[in-house]
Design goal:
The chain is an alpha+beta fold. The chain has 2 domains: 10-222, Ribosomal Protein S5, domain 2, CATH 3.30.230.10; 225-409, 2-Layer Sandwich (Alpha-Beta Plaits). The chain has helices at 10-25, 106-118, 146-161, 170-187, 195-202, 246-262, 267-275, 281-286, 290-315, 323-342, 349-360, 386-399; strands spanning 31-40, 52-53, 55-68, 73-78, 86-89, 130-136, 207-212, 218-222, 230-236, 365-369, 376-382, 406-409, 417-418. The strands form 3 sheets. A 6-stranded mixed sheet has the order 5-4-6-3-1-13. A 4-stranded antiparallel sheet has the order 10-11-9-12. Strand 10 and strand 11 form a beta hairpin. Helix 2 crosses helix 3 and helix 2 (106-118) crosses helix 4. The longest helix is centred in the C-terminal third of the chain and has 26 residues, at 290-315. The model has no long low-confidence stretch (mean pLDDT 96). It binds alpha-D-galactopyranose (GLA).
Amino acid sequence: MSALLAPWDGPEGAGRARDLFAEAFGGAPEGVWSAPGRVNVIGEHTDYNGGLCLPVALEHRTYVAVRPRADRTVRLVSAQEPGGAREVDLDAVAPAGTRGEVPGWAAYAVGVAWALERAGLAPAGSLPGFDIAVDSCVPYGAGLSSSAALECAVAVALDDLAGLGLADGDAGRTRLAAACVRAENEVAGAPTGGMDQAASLRAQAGHALLLDCRDGSVEQVPFDLAAAGLALLVIDTRAEHRLVDGQYARRRQVCEEAARVLGVPSLRETADAVMAGETTLDDVLARLDGEHRRRVRHVVSEIERVRELAALLRAAPGAALTGGEQARTGALLDASHASLRDDYQVSARELDVAVEAARAAGAHGARMTGGGFGGSAIALVEAARAAEVADAVGEAFAAAELTPPAFLLATPAGPAARS
Ligand code: GLA
């Protein structure tokens, strides 16, 4: 039977990070902070278009044990990264692609310190160097935001250690999230859109986060899967996904070009105009060429699907999806996958196999989640049948001669915090 990858509980995660810290640096850290990975329920490739998305934070978290130093050196070690400790001078950190860029995973951690100072959230040169040990049960490179979880754990750690007080409320967390995005875009060089960091810093347990990426506002939408006897099965296809390669950037660029042709600041305005009946999607698409047309059709229809699913969840009695609502939710997930596969062209064979096998085994609906080109899919299933669906997906992978997938359940959990 397929095993579900269980999250660590807080003491286990903190204990692992402390042990690694003692082994690498000696002594005890000042504290341990942690931040969750995420899955996006719906609203893919909408964030950098000013659109809507609906992620949930996972129970699976990244733990960082941190001790400030008297100088501006950062020493880093990670249980997930071979090669021992790294050392970076905070004053020498430079954007990706320039001299002084920070290679590899360390960029996600030191980039946050750099961005907090660059954004003026901490005075320039004021943050101390630090020793940091990282351990995580967020599957790595699986499209579940292991990088955002690291950034956000570091952000709440530095916020606490420097007494910035930003993690105390949603407005401050929004600013921390922006700094994490900046770290990822500028220091790590991945042109991602911001959903992941918002989910990791601003999501609430038992809720999905309806994020409006135009103005950064959020609505906590109750999402009580268990009450309806449902579960969200995450299928990590083990097909490695990379956001630093050119495909993601190319999608983003095409959307920006399309917005220029349409004379709008972002495709969100186009989606709103279609929704308001000021124009039709066909009229919009008629003004665009082939590649732009497909991408815009995905973005506009996907924003509409987010609105519809959020409305279903808001209206669900006791926040539990039942009967026809389950069927409609499943249909929205299926439509999202088809749009990402056919119009946005970011799916992968492994994702299509996962989605089809899950549906054939009785899932209400299934779709790829995250940036795509590998990574993970989600399936909305009867909780009692989650293991059965996982087995059926595993069998389909074996029949297709693919690497066996891994599975976990997405239970909407809480945001980055001290552990
Ligand atoms: C990745 C990025 C996000 C978002 C998704 C697609 O996860 O990090 O910003 O663009 O892809 O929805």
